[in-house]
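Regression report. Comparing outputs from two consecutive submissions.

Submission 1:
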Amino acid sequence: MGSSLSVYLLDMAATRALVGSRNDQLLEVIRNSFSDDLARDDDYFSHAIKEGAPTAYEALHAVINGGPFSENQDHAFQYGYAYKPLCSLTGSSLDNNCFTPHRGDWLSVVDEGLKALGVTAVSVEDFSYSDLPDPLPYTFIPGCGEWTPDHIAQALEQFEAAKQAVDESGQAPSLDPEVVEAAMQCLGWMRHAAGRPGFGVIGFRS
């Protein structure tokens, strides 16, 4: 079984502000809109729930209310998964066919491809780490990372500068076609965000 990468275009500050917002209406909207997903997650993590982990809805309730969170680090994954529907509801899903499924070190391979194309300001491997909003507890899985508007703007400038250099020299980097396709998909994500002030990209790896 491979890993998956879910990527969303959204207003980053507004989405992070939902954590601890105590917005009961939002809670009910997500509970109704994602009822099948919540039930499926409870089934998938039934063993952990039997061992004391919160259910998907309980974790969602804690995220929106800013706590309380389980003191058991083994339960922290539920809060990461609970943050994901907030991003899905408030953002737009981005095309991820180059990354779902993927195996092994594919994200770092694509990062090397991006570097060869001049882009170092963003990293797809960052989606493997835990960059959840405070006060959500740290969790290894799911991974969560962000590309901020500033980093995206810098990355696009890097790509255009590198492209101009290639056009002038006639010497393009030699890359595997699959890596090029994945790198171009990343640039597509960034171009979607660049046209909308305050918008960035959030990715979840699981």
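Submission 2:
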Amino acid sequence: MNNSDLAQILIRAVEEADSSERLIDAVQDLAAAHLEESVPTLIAALGYNNPGAAVAAVDGLIAIGEAAVSPLLKLIDDYNYGARAWALRALAGIGDVRALDTLFEAAKTDFSLSVRRAATRGLGTLLWHQLPPEKVESVQTQVLEALLLISKDPEWVVRYAAVTSLETLAIAMPAAVNNPVSLPDRASRITNQLQQMLDTDVDLGVRTRVKFAQEKIQQQQHQEVFAPKRKLQETEVDVPHRGGGRR
């Protein structure tokens, strides 16, 4: 049996499922096959009002990866906020930069807090190597500006997601940036925003997540400071002193 035949069998099982439990099982089986032919059906499952099936579909779409991005962007449901949130979660998990504009718009303006949360998390999971090196700095700056704005969202779950993405952005910047000149400024803006949230945010969960983010960023900075020294030490070779040979 080839992949196309297997895909049709699994897709038919999803379409013919006559109970919530059977639907979940069918979507899980389809997702586990990691077949590109299954993408439209998995996207449709995001809108079935069945969280178990949606979770399985998201996992399957993330596993398929880049091949699922274009269909997700084309077939994303603008009227079903639940399905839109799941789709954005899938895009966030894949991290493809083609979803950047969609993530920007949803994170900043969408009516649904679940959509804003999913999109905000997606801004912190972008695969920077997909961008040309000369564009990385400008795009990271756009993402930073968006996250600084989103970190003031009235919903705590969205602010929580913003903290998570600020952390991942801070850690990713040194490795991804082509020109490190502006790096300290952007890093300090993240650090200052996190400290402000720690001092002023009304939600304990957000403040706790900020503390965790600060610790992770500090660990990364510590590693960056001492890594060059360790590398130098590892490459040093003992050179005998002149006249130090056996007499």
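Expected: both submissions complete independently.
Actual: both completed, but the second showed a warning that disappeared on reload.
Relevant detail on submission 2: Residues 237-247 have pLDDT under 50 and may be disordered.
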